[in-house]
Write a structure and sequence with these properties.
This protein is mainly alpha-helical. It has one domain: Nucleotidyltransferases  domain 2 (Four Helix Bundle (Hemerythrin (Met), subunit A)). Helix content is 72%, strand content 0%. The protein is built from 5 helices and no strands.
Length: 139
């Protein structure tokens, strides 16, 4: 396995832990931001482990769908790829606003996200991280 894949997986784990801590503090925007980073690192770890070329952008959900027929992946993960791709795209769409807020309207990020937003982000990040980790631990 490529060292960078393992490094990205460790980064994903760190981001997930930081997201959980931010949620405990009531910092829901930071929770969403760190959850997005967790998902991005986890998916890129998968790409690196498979030596799959991907663009250097934050939303790699569409590229993930290209792996649904990749027989190197277990059937259950291939079945979950559309869900993971959707989670990746959804969280990536919140990335900028979770960090910087709505600058035009003058609304800080912390006022734009609720506890339920944070809980969903953590749930989605945990699911993605867990699925990728299972595969990488087999390799």
């Amino acid at each position: 396995m490529r060292k960078i894949a393992l490094s990205y997986l460790q980064d994903a784990k760190s981001c997930l832990e930081e997201a959980k801590q931010a949620s405990i503090r009531g910092d829901y925007a930071r929770t969403v931001s760190r959850s997005q980073e967790c998902v991005e690192y986890a998916v890129k770890a998968l790409f690196e482990a498979l030596e799959f070329s991907y663009p250097f952008i934050h939303d790699v959900g569409p590229q993930l769908l290209l792996l649904t027929e990749d027989e190197r992946l277990p059937e259950d993960l291939r079945r979950d790829l559309p869900k993971i791709a959707s989670l990746t795209t959804s969280l990536a769409s919140k990335r900028v606003i979770a960090r910087y807020g709505n600058q035009r309207a003058g609304i800080p990020a912390k006022e734009l996200f609720s506890k339920s937003d944070a809980e969903k982000a953590i749930h989605d990040a945990t699911f993605t991280y867990t699925e990728v980790k299972k595969l990488l631990n087999k390799g």
